[in-house]
Amino acid sequence: MIEYYPFDKFKVSAIQKAKRDKPCCGDSYYVKETDDYLICAVADGLGSGIGAKEASQKVVDTVRNHHELPVETQMLKANLSLHNERGAVVTIFKIDYKKGLVTYCGVGNIRLSIYPKQGKSITPLSKPGFLSGRPVRFHVQEFAYPEGGLFVIHSDGVNILSQQLPVIRHIYSADRPDQAEDYFNDLMQGNGDDVTLLIGKPLC
């Protein structure tokens, strides 16, 4: 399933696919733009199927209800929401439009990479583990968003290498959903796991 988010300052494309034999994808995501920032959260519930989806959905519902708060506070609230739940790996990042800064916090194997027009990609490191309601010390990182940079955030259902960036750009710029699906299937190469992939770029 492909969704397009043509915000005022960013365009974001999101694609999600369930594991082969499961009724739903165990991942959830949330993306929103305000006048001041873009916020994005991706959560991958442990395991797969409905139980995983319920856990990941609790995380994104928490972010949806508290997106204006600092990223670390959102992570704390997301962690609390998973008490007595299956658990999830989570990444949240926020791009401050006025400051041009990214605030990032991740626990587990959801990967964020930002590709500048030139030079090396930026890939902040997440903290190992997962959220389950137990106390966690979060590591929050802040860095400048490169002008015109393309961000890619994805769950562990797909492994994106630097040489696959042209395929990512094709998914982002495809005129029709079926074209984007074809490029995405090329990227997956038969991988049968849950996967969530979000691609975003400034509009100017």
UniProtKB/TrEMBL annotation:
Domain PPM-type phosphatase: from-to ranges: 7-202
Classification via Pfam families: SpoIIE (PF07228)
Highest taxon listed in the record's lineage: Bacteria
Database matches in InterPro entries: PPM-type-like_dom_sf, PPM-type_phosphatase-like_dom, Ptase_RsbX
The name this protein goes by in its record: Negative regulator of sigma-B (Phosphoserine phosphatase)
